[in-house]
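Researcher: We are triaging several targets before committing to wet-lab work. For this one, the compound of interest is magnesium ion. I'm pasting the protein sequence and the ligand SMILES. What I need is the predicted three-dimensional arrangement of the protein with the ligand bound, expressed as structure tokens, so it can go straight into our comparison scripts without reformatting.
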Amino acid sequence: MTDTPEFDEETIEAARVLCAGPCNFVLGVAGLPQLPEADRPEIAFAGRSNVGKSSLINGLLNRKNLARASQEPGRTRELNYFDLGEGLMWLVDLPGFGYAKVSRTQAEQWMKLTRQYLRGRVNLRRVFLLVDSRRGLMDTDRDIMTMLDGAAVNYQIVLTKADKIKKTEAEATRDKVLAELKKHPAAHPVIRLTSAEKGWGLPELRAEILQLST
Ligand SMILES: Nc1nc2c(ncn2[C@@H]2O[C@H](COP(=O)(O)OP(=O)(O)O)[C@@H](O)[C@H]2O)c(=O)[nH]1
Ligand SMILES: [Mg+2]
């Protein structure tokens, strides 16, 4: 098992300040022509519906309701763009995938838009792929990972809701996923274990985001 690299206090503090500052919703993108200019670094958050994506984004940015913690998972079909640090970087909330109630046509449409976006977005520095720490990787996650490998887009697994299970169980999930990452060339080799509820792992994730902004 790899130990998670630590960040120095200055980086953690600078990242805290960045994420406590302005982060405004700019637009929802339903088709590629609407994408904003690729004039700054960009990071995106992806994950199955209900994985805790809205909660994590809100937690990272100390907001209550930036990314609506939707009562209807899978409803948002757009790429939601936020301006972090007033022009510093784009933060993108991708539509949740793998939602059972979504029709096949809708799911295919999501995959098409996402694939086109992921393949073509030159300023995209990293995709944070959120995975429930109780479940580990599911086949829909593996599909996205394979797509990201194919597009050579750097991605990092973030395990969510770690407070819902024992620490040893969460660590076991992390190690299992870590082993599987060896087959995925574009995967960042560090996995972050987080809880939006408890704030666990958020300072480090903010530090990763800060480092991706330069
Ligand atoms: N215990 C716990 N529950 C969480 C955490 N993150 C999200 N949840 C819950 O999981 C459900 C789905 O969260 P949400 O953020 O809306 O997921 P999304 O569909 O991926 O945006 C909600 O009931 C949240 O309250 C967490 O870190 N710990
Ligand atoms: Mg959501």
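Researcher: Any quick observations?
Model: Residues 69-75 have pLDDT under 50 and may be disordered.
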